[in-house]
Amino acid sequence: MTQDILINWSPQETRVAVVEQGAVQEVHLERTLERGLVGNIYLGKVSRVLPGMQSAFIDIGLDRAAFLHVADLMPNIAAKHAGPRDKPATEAAPGAAARTGQRVLHPDPVLPIERQVFEGQALMVQVLKDPIGTKGARLTAQISIAGRLLVFLPQDNHIGVSQKIPTAQRDALRQRLQALTALPDGSPAGGFILRTNAEDASDDELRDDIAYLRKTWKRIREAATQQPPATLLYEDLSLMQRVLRDLVGAQTQAIRIDSREQFGVLQRFASEFMPDTLPRLRHYSGERPIFDLFGIDEEIVRALSRRVDLKSGGYLVIDQTEALTTVDVNTGGFVGARNFDDTVFRTNLEAAQAIARQLRLRNLGGIVIVDFIDMVRDEHREAVLVEFRKQLARDRVKTMVGGFSQLGLVEMTRKRTRESLAQMLSEPCAACGGRGTVKTARSLCYDILREILREARAFNPREFRVLASPQVVELFLDEESQHLAGLSDFIGKPISLQSEAAMTQEQYDIVLL
């Protein structure tokens, strides 16, 4: 399947769209003032240790302290800070060391976090997840640096190969990598994982990537000895650079960018680290905006909507909440050509393809619950699941899918590392506070009447004046006029109305005159 990558650059924002067969599959955004932190390495300072949660808050110089769980500490930290009262050490290898078979001494069970870190301690950490909502960034002390072909694990000696590479080739690739990464005396120096795009890489290409990653790590270590805590030691690549590193594959036909200046920047970066991508780089100089070529802006607008129409006439309803995302499949106007079972089956098959694409396009993560239309036949359910998993296999982000539950729901998870498209582009509605609905004008009228009654019992003004939206004032003057007059007689005070066009339907004020 052929692929085009379009890059729309401006001083304030970089936008990237991945297009396959004329359909937008992914949209990536990076704003200059809101650049993501995933992959950044900091020299942090432990600001608080929480034994009850087995975690610590780390100051890395952001507005909110970041979060580090005990499972994300390096095993050698436990050994380094083990006290004389710890249980006798036993040979074990949690975390990254578990894959290497190296001897790591630590207590059994693993030391609690309060015996491993302490307030005020300087600790090198890396961002796993960006701050989302009210949650701070998620950190790890297990550092990894991604290159073009390899991922470097400087605190480990593990040599690994991507699971996407066929099993028959992994052993040979692992042996090649072990030979290339070993120091002259034969000892290993840091761990490496071979990425999927390195399957056919030459030894010279791998050596160049190894040298680049080790040089980067050396600079990071030197900065850590010279800089104070809460300092950024290493910043991950920009979105445009990550496009060349992560998104470009054998199926990519062209990478088009609409900025001549940034085109030159990408050319220099590609020539140094990814020369294979150079022939596919294109500077787009057309008069039409580059995103207009494939209707990307319109697709982004549709991706912010709850409803997604299917070609058959069916539709999806996607709701994103704090805890999970729900997807409801409906037949809509699709009546099929044979019978009801066939209509349901075909709608669900089309929905399986559309849902996988929407998850990528909207960058939805966490728990996802899919409510396919109920199917009577087991073979139909199995065929829909097979198609769903097939479409999800195209995702760059890790996904896990279960079968149909007793309630006919499909549960799945998609790894969440950055905010979704909706979270990046929108904010809660000022009128409804993010609920998606507002109180009716009649409900507001009754709220105002009750509020006037409470105020009349507490105060003795000359007059009550109600400032409200035009819809509420109009209802008071028409259908609710009798209730307003009755309250005025009851409290013995006049009540006047003032329409405020700037007020939303739920806003009002009662002025005591």
Give the topology.
Layout: E1 3-10, E2 13-20, E3 23-31, E4 41-50, E5 55-59, E6 66-69, H1 75-81, E7 90-92, E8 104-106, E9 122-129, E10 138-140, E11 145-146, E12 150-153, E13 159-161, H2 167-181, E14 191-194, H3 203-226, E15 231-234, H4 239-247, E16 252-257, H5 260-273, E17 281-283, H6 296-303, E18 307-309, E19 315-320, E20 324-330, H7 340-362, E21 366-371, H8 378-392, E22 399-404, E23 410-414, H9 421-425, H10 441-458, E24 464-468, H11 470-477, H12 481-491, E25 495-499, E26 508-512
Parallel strand pairs: 1-16, 6-10, 13-14, 16-17, 20-21, 24-25
Antiparallel strand pairs: 1-2, 2-3, 4-5, 4-9, 4-15, 5-6, 7-8, 9-10, 11-12, 12-14, 18-19, 19-20, 21-23, 22-23, 24-26
Features:
single chain; 513 residues; alpha+beta; 5-stranded mixed β-sheet; 26 strands
Report on this structure.
Helix content is about 30%, strand content about 25%. The chain has about 525 residues and is of the alpha+beta class. The strands form 6 sheets. The protein has a 6-stranded mixed β-sheet, with helices on one face. Helix 2 (about 165-180) packs across helix 3 (about 205-225), helix 7 (about 340-360) runs parallel beside helix 8 (about 380-390) and helix 10 packs across helix 11 (about 470-475). The longest helix is centred in the middle third of the chain and has 24 residues, at about 205-225. It is globular and about 100 Å long. Mean pLDDT is about 85; it is low at about 75-110.
